[in-house]
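thought: fold this chain, then report.
action: predict
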Amino acid sequence: MRQMLLVVVAVFLASCAIKEALTGSRRYAPGADMLGQTPEQVIFSLGQPAATLQVRAGSRLVFVRGPFGRHSYFVDFDEAGRMMAFEQVLTRERFARINPGMSGQEVIAILGPSTEIRGLAFNRIVWSWRYENYECLWFQVELEASGVVRSAGHAILPECLGRSRIVGF
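observation:
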């Protein structure tokens, strides 16, 4: 029994070491226990941020997580450089704030950077965010060549279309 417990503990510790080596982070998500930490301490725990943004109260680090980026966390710091808040931002409420005519920078300020970018004709691009949901959807924003939002909405994830669809009908 004791040997089995030692094996379980060893496997757990090895998996933690492998996760850190692969992802560069010790934790998946920020937590209340991190409030008051400096950006350096937060980066040590969560790994390199996907983006750094300036906000009214100070600065914001953006951490994209999960398979295909299904979670993105905004971690806010006050002017003194201490973590004061965090939020998982890939939500339907935030998606509803994206409207045609907005700039790409405004979109990033609401959702963080896209996890997938695709080119379209006429120099347009589509930014896509996978997020946790039961409908097998992702959120997409189409940008004009000028960087202004042309359209935004939910679409079925490509892997959820299945092989049963008939092309051309």
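thought: worth noting. Helices lie at 2-23, 39-46, 92-95, 104-111.
final: tokens above.
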